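Hello Y.,

Per our agreement to keep a running log of every chain we model this quarter, I'm adding this entry. I've kept the format consistent with earlier entries: sequence first, then predicted structure.
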Amino acid sequence: MTLPRQERHAIAATAAAVVVLAGLAITQYLRTSWPFAEDTPGKPAAAEHAGHEVHASYGEAPPGYGAVTVDPAQAEAIGLASAPVEQRDLTRTVRTVGVVGFDETRTTHVHAKVRGWIDTIQANFVGRSVRAGQPLCSIYSQDVYAAESELVGLLDHALDRPLDRPKDDPLVAAARRRLALWDVPGSEIARLEASREPSRTFPLLAPRSGTIVAKAAIEGAFVEPSTELYTLSDLSKVWVLIDLYERDAPYVRVGDHAKLTIEGQGAPLDATLAFLAPTIDEATRTLKARFVIDNRNGRLRPGAFVSAEMTLAMGTGLTIPESAVIRTGTRSIVFVVHDSHIQPREVTLGPSSGELYRVEAGLVVGDRVATGAQFLLDSESRLRASSSPGGGHVH
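Predicted structure for the entry above:
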């Protein structure tokens, strides 16, 4: 059934009146129960309650935010807490991992300086300790055999001239020097000069004392100068190499101390940083840091896993609690508390130090920042900005 037009208009008017009355009732309820006070033109409501004037020194709120006033009686109910902005000495504790490695300054790669074949091997397994001058293997070389034969001939020729002494003959000296440059031991050259009999092989001697950590020498194998036969390392000192992330690199200095926990070694070792790599690893985005550790007892083995802990000094600066900051993508917002007046402020933050942030700009010593109810403050501040004349536009 279709109602007459006059009756339809009367029903619509009655419904509109009910909606208006309901809206007024809800508004009145929110005014009496919402903890944030309403502003009056030119002055916050909190100023009416507490006689507090808003100073111009508070500065302008960031775009998209507005100042908020809170009834002091309701501040505790919403969990509003604050903390002062303080000047502090900042430190950061860094925990990272690394590995025990060989001391490269005590490591030697052994090559033969002539072409030839390995005849016999004296140092025949990895892990064996050797002394400087100890034979590692014997090598047959046609070049060395020919040079020894030449030296014998020169010595015999010099003896045929009784006015000359063989050791002063320049040709003899040159032949002797050539053998020495090929790493033929001095004892072998002395034997040759005494016996006048060239030897089929000559011994390759260990250039330093240490442990064989790599071995490629095999009996009967052909070798040439590019062939690495042994790697020797003195393990009385070892390196510990740890990885530091890029963000920590500016605060690390040679001479800093660290606690190194080496897997299976029990108590941590106190160590001093000896070297920082000059480059960042592009794949891992980390910086290598080196510690030199005494290992005369032989307990530390290259390849062992290491956990490291360092405390880095980051200088002195203004700090605020981490809980005071609201990050909104590209901006960091805090709420500065002035009695019942709460002012949003954009700040520039530096690196974190534990549960503190370093403040580069936006705050001064003595300011107090909200550390509780920030998200409630954030919502109300945005609502104030959007409902104010010309509000609602956030940069």
